[in-house]
Write a structure and sequence with these properties.
This protein has 257 residues and is of the alpha+beta class. It contains seven helices and six strands. Helix 2 runs antiparallel to helix 3, helix 2 packs parallel to helix 7 and helix 3 runs antiparallel to helix 7. The N and C termini lie far apart (169 Å).
């Protein structure tokens, strides 16, 4: 009996599985840690880029406001600063700014464009856009225009679009309106010479610059009106003084007779 029980115990002992330490789970820990560290580095780099972009955008916006403040009534330096900042930060090749005149647009500033394209605007400063061209759509719909590849679109026989394609080699573009009291008073467009559409953040920044341009235009208008008023008042005061002098001479001459 003892032998039987002993053999059973031995068999039971033999069938008992050995405890196996989880070496695999332990071996995975370093790779998981490395993956987590890599993800953290990527997230940190992304946040740093976003921070740098935000700082750059704020700095550019502040720079435009400084130019507006330091150049009262002067639009040329303001427009140049806006286009330079917009093309640089949005990674565009060149940019244009137009002011509206009735149903047409007059080129007010351009930056970074090829010489042949700038010469074109010297010859054709006033643009009557086709209703389906970029400026035409902005004027009609009061919405932004976003084209991935302008060369793939119809020219509509629009002279400026043809010039923009042939003389400036434009591909991707985005254009936004300058608004005042709900009306389009101008437009800004930036262009790339490769097919690479602009992002929503870049378009939002361009709209921000457009709003600053409207501020500069309005400030210039108010300042010019004030200057004209002062000139009229000054001229009126000089006339009144001159009239009093001559009236006195005339009255004295009457007494003499």
């Amino acid at each position: 009996m003892k032998r039987r029980s002993s053999s059973r115990g031995t068999a039971a002992h033999a069938r008992k599985p050995k405890s196996v330490k989880s070496k695999r789970s332990g071996s995975n820990k370093p790779s998981v840690s490395r993956a987590s560290a890599k993800d953290a580095e990527l997230k940190l780099a992304s946040l740093q880029r976003e921070l740098n972009e935000a700082v750059e955008q704020q700095s550019a916006t502040a720079g435009v406001l400084r130019v507006i403040s330091n150049s009262p009534g002067e639009l040329e330096p303001v427009f140049y600063t806006i286009l330079e900042s917009a093309t640089r930060i949005c990674q565009a090749k060149f940019g244009n700014l137009w002011l509206r005149e009735g149903d047409a647009f007059r080129i007010a500033a351009t930056h970074g464009a090829p010489l042949a394209y700038r010469d074109y605007f010297d010859r054709e400063p006033l643009v009557h856009p086709h209703p389906k061209s970029g400026l035409g759509v902005i004027l009609e719909t009061k919405r932004l225009v976003r084209i991935a590849d302008i060369k793939a679109e119809s020219t509509f026989r629009d002279k400026m679009r043809v010039a923009t394609i042939e003389l400036a080699n434009a591909r991707s573009l985005v254009g936004v309106a300058l608004f005042k009291e709900g009306e389009v008073i101008g437009a800004i467009a930036i262009y790339r010479q490769e097919v690479r559409p602009f992002t929503d953040k870049q378009i939002e920044l361009l709209q921000n610059f457009a709003a600053r341009a409207v501020i500069a235009i309005d400030n210039a208008r108010v300042l010019n009106e004030l200057r004209e008023s002062l000139q009229q008042q000054t001229a009126g005061a000089k006339f009144s003084k001159l009239f009093r002098v001559h009236r006195g001479i005339w009255l004295r001459s009457l007494k003499h007779y």
